[in-house]
Amino acid sequence: MSNQLKKYFATKYNHSLNNIIKFSIYHLLTISNNDLSEDELFTKFKELLSNDIPDDGTISIEFRKVLKKLESNKMIDVKLNGHENLKLFKCLSISGDVVNRLKDEVYKYKLSDSYATHQRKMDEANIKRKEFCERFSVSKLPSLRIDDYVLGVQNKSSFSYMLERESLLQGGYGSIRGGTSDRFGIYFGRTKTNRAHEYRISNRYNRGTLDESFKFLKRNLISLINAINNNDILELQFNMFSDGIKFKTAMLFKPCEHMSIYSSEHLNNILDLFDMSLIKNYSVFTKNIAILKLKTLVDPKLENVHFSDFLYSNDLYCAAIYGRDKISDIFINQTITKIEFNDLFNKKRNPSPQNRINEQIDSDQINLKKTKQGAIAEELVFEYEKNRLSNEYPGFPQRVSLTDSSLGYDIHSKNSDGTEKYIEVKSKVSGGPTNVDFFITKNEYEKLKANPSNYSIYFVYSLSENPKFFEIKFSHIKDLEKEVVAYRFFLTTVPPTS
Taking the model in full, what pTM does it have? Predict the structure, then answer.
């Protein structure tokens, strides 16, 4: 390959032609509805490239070398067309059984309270999404000030803050929290070795001075949003920003063309779940496109944000997505520890309103409580109960919440004397056993009142660090305050209109 061609790809995409070809092949076979011949694949690849590419005749040679290597390494599927003896590269196929099963489940989801709740939240989130897109449109980016971009300057309208921390954009369009501020290229803050608050530049974006570095970052941001608007697949994939930043931005600008799942681990678990494991080594972008293809087969009219919510609000799928069978890996092989209730709560506690996570209680939270932390907390408690019983009572414990969420408890276990034990699991992600509050549904409260000696709430805390739990019995519940968070009205007669 000529130096001119190498320089072209290194300058335009900051990647080698080999990497660009590999991504393109994966992407084309994922989006295609038909198997493709080598020539058809190459033609579609050329369509992805810019027209001004200085082709010296070696691109075709490089393309076929990469294709042959992927085939020999069994990274793509191949079949022969019997009539023409033509080798075809298989497009992503999705099991009809998977599609039919999901059609039934999505239909039920669309009739559920969870869907209605999510729709209301999305109506509100969409207003904030449009605000974001208007504020950071390509026409306005050249005049973007650094404090309107970075985290750490107490500006809740900055690009980085809205993308990562704006609650409406997290709940509706997926979360990218968890990484360091460094991934945004420039931020305002301190480091472990330098505690002074000042502008910080990551190595990839450092161009000597803050001013030059920010100009360079803005050029990349403009290129990213142009790529999103123009559906420039290669620029979107190979833009310098991290996957989370790129694809969350793409989701906000084009929510009908992208999915709101940014974790490669979550995507891999979804692909395993729906028999699409072959593409687990593909890029985050292509894996998202594969999930989008699945959604289109299941229900083309369902909005992408609702399909993501469907996956995460379904107890079985949520548990699988978060690696229910790999729970020890999530906590680096830690086990849950039991703390005695009376050691923590020897006097009545009244959590102060200012320390609540949310200042105003929203009844919608009840409908959305089955999230990541719920699935993981239940699994930890389930493992604890299995170890506690130590096969003394065959068939117990049972994690009944996976098959029926209306029973009023999550785990059916046994007490040490052989009597029934009904366990409801409540949790919080971080922090100690202070300011404890949680929701009790009507079914849970009725079950508790009917079985005062056999019903326990296991409250798991410090879930993401070193999980511990304490057991709450009926006598403790009686001493705790109950607060009405919602009323339900039944209208049996339609009033006459005036």
Answer: 0.66
